[in-house]
Amino acid sequence: MIAMSDHLDIDVLLQEPASLAVAEQLVAWADTTRTQIARGDMMLGILTIDRATKIPTAYKTAAQQGLSSAWVTLAWWYAYPDFGEPDLSAAEEALGTAVAANVDNAQLELARMRWFFKRETATESEQQQAFQYVSESVDSDPANAEGVYLLALLTTHGFGVAASPGAGFELQQRAADLGNLDALFEIYVHYANGLDVPVDEERAFAACQRAAEAGHPRAMYNLGAFNATGRGIPRNMTEAVKWYERAADVGNPSAMAGLAMIFATGDGVEPDREYARELFDQADYCGLDVSHLREQVGL
C-alpha cells in the first residue's frame, strides 16, 4: 500500500491490489480532490480536469473493493457533481446497489434522491417505493430526524401517498423538535404559504429566524432578504449584509448575488464594485445566472 498525500498519483493507486485500506485511500483522495474543486483550484489551473474526472472512478472502485458506503457517495456525485453534468440514471443505479448491499440509510438516500431530483419524472411505483422506504425507516427509528423530515415532505406534497399538508406539518414539527434544521425551515414555508395552516407572518418569520440562527443556508438568505427589503420588519441594511454574508459563506449563490447588488450600488454600505464583481463571479460559478443583475449595475 502506498502512502497517501495531496499529490498522490491516482492512477498508481487505482492499480494497487484491492483491499479495504486501498478503498479508504481512494475515498480520501476523492474527498481531498473535491475540496480542491470547492476552493477554486480548477479555475486557477492547479487542479486539472483529467484528475478531477477520476473522482467517480475512485468512489466506484472503493465501493467495489468493499467500502460499500462509497456507493452512496458515488450516487450523490452523479446526481449533483461538483462539475460536469448530472447522471440520474447512474445515481439511481449506484443507490440500488447500496440498497442491495444493505448499506445503512441507503433506502432513505434513494427516496431522498427521487424526491429532490426526480420529483416530476418518477413513476408512480418509484414514488410509492420511496414513500415505503421512508416510512419503514421512521418506523424502525422514530428518532431519525432526517427520516421524519423527508416523510413530512412526501406526505405534504403527495409523493407516493395521498397529499396531506396538515399531517406533513405535524411531522415537520416533530422533525424540528428532533433537531432537523430543514424541518424548521419547512415550518416557515407552511406558515408563509398557508399549507393547511392559517397564514401567519409572525410565526413564519420566527421559524425562519430560528433556522437562520442555527445555520440553515436558505433561512439565512431569506433573513437577509427580509432585512434588505423591509418585509415584515424595519429595513436594516447592516443586518441584511450580515445574513447575506453568512449565507454566502456556506455557498448560497442567491446571497452572493444579493451582496453583489448591495455593494455595487452602495445601498447602505460604502460602494465596492470590485468586491461586487467578485461576488457575481462566485454566484455564476455556483450555477446562478446573474447576467441580468450585472447589466443593471454595469458589471
UniProtKB/TrEMBL annotation:
Q: Show the Gene3D superfamilies listed in the entry.
A: Tetratricopeptide repeat domain (1.25.40.10)
Per its UniProt entry, which superkingdom is the organism in?
Answer: Bacteria
| One Pfam family of this chain | Sel1
Where does the sequence pass through the membrane? none
Protein name in the entry: Localization factor PodJL
